[in-house]
Amino acid sequence: MDAESQKNHLKAYGITYWTLEKQMKVKWLLNYRGGSFLLPDSEEIKRECQIRGVSFETLSNAKAESILEEISSPSKNMEAVVLEKAPKIAVYTPKGKLPWDDAVTMVLTYAEIPYETVYDEEVLNDALLLYDWLHLHHEDFTGQYGKFYANYRTSAWYIDEKKEAEALAAKLGFAKVSEEKLAVSLKIRDYVIGGGFMFAMCSATDSFDIALSAEGVDICEPMFDGDASEANYQSKINYNKTFAFKDFTLERNPLVYEFSSIDMTQKRQIPKMTDYFTLMDFSAKWDPIPTMLCQNHTALVKGFMGQTTSFTRDQIKSNVLILGENKTNGEAKYIHGIKGKGFFTFYGGHDPEDYTHKVGDPKTELDLYPTSPGYRLILNNVLFPAARKKKQKT
Fold it and tell me: What domain of life does the native source organism fall in (predicted)?
């Protein structure tokens, strides 16, 4: 899985997932040649690699043992993690949403990793208990319809989505969309606390935490929920309820395309050509979880924008790990934490290979980016639940 010898990093994850589905175990060789996978030597797997265009090398038993011995050396920042079971994947998305509007569904489809979709009704009926891994993308859990009001309130798609959201909330027994989305957020919170894995991108990251922090507080203006917001609501925000963020200030103006001070989109002064973030270096033997999530063939990854592009560094809780950051701009791009028995990862931005993705833009053709480092980070999270866990030391 290094830069020089793997033709299709993304589909390699699909091969690994496919192998796990066949009830075969895989060793993930952390920090060895870009985070390589050691699979059983079978003609079936070799044939599948050839069909999917994935580069592989056949090793003798002696060579494989030699590599594992090298990895186990205390002097090497490497580790072999056993992957045991293909995780069952759910993507939270409304019915009828185009799959190319979500980087995760695009890369899962490209890598040939199966997933199922769930939405509010399934979440509120405890369907998440059937899944190991949940993805959230450009959802607005605050009930403000993505803060698209200023630019898109007269657009047919905005009007239709608002009507559909109101109808669904009413069907599920809620007076307001914001109340229904809060109930969904609390179910997702409980899913993670109970041992689930949650991966969120773009606006699902900060809007989820804001919804939790504003439980019982009306932060929506009349154009969103039909009545005025609560007076002095900023002072009633409870940061103890959030997963990742603290001390943020909500954006009160409904005409501003922003949820809060968490997001760095409007505070960035970085030209596109120099917009990169750096992956952190962890000890593979002592901290295998963050090491797994940062596996890549480069430590420097191209930046990309989104409604929530990245996170204000000093508004991230101290118990949350920064996995990727742009230190010069004081922002974190990729963060990870533990909540109860479960884990969450937040990844800022919308599409790793579409720098300024806009509403209505065509989909990204991943055949053009089979070695994308930004997309690899998503797939690291997909395989993460398959790992046999060791207790984290730090």
Answer: Bacteria
Q: Could you tell me where in the chain the CATH 3.40.50.880 domains are found?
A: 89-386
pTM above 0.90, yes or no: yes
For domain 89-386, the CATH class is: alpha beta
- For the record, the structure tokens of 134 come out as 């949940």
Distances (CA, A) of 288 to 70, 78, 283, 388: 17, 9, 7, 10
Residue pLDDT, tens place only, 24-66 = 999 999 999 999 999 999 999 999 999 999 999 999 999 999 9
Q: Which residues contact 100 (CB under 8 A, 6 or more apart)?
A: 106, 362, 363, 364
The stretches of 155-198 forming alpha helices (DSSP H) are 156-171, 177-193
DSSP-based three-state secondary structure for 332: strand
User: Is 245 in contact with 262 (CB distance < 8 Å)?
Assistant: yes
The pLDDT value given to residue 388: 66
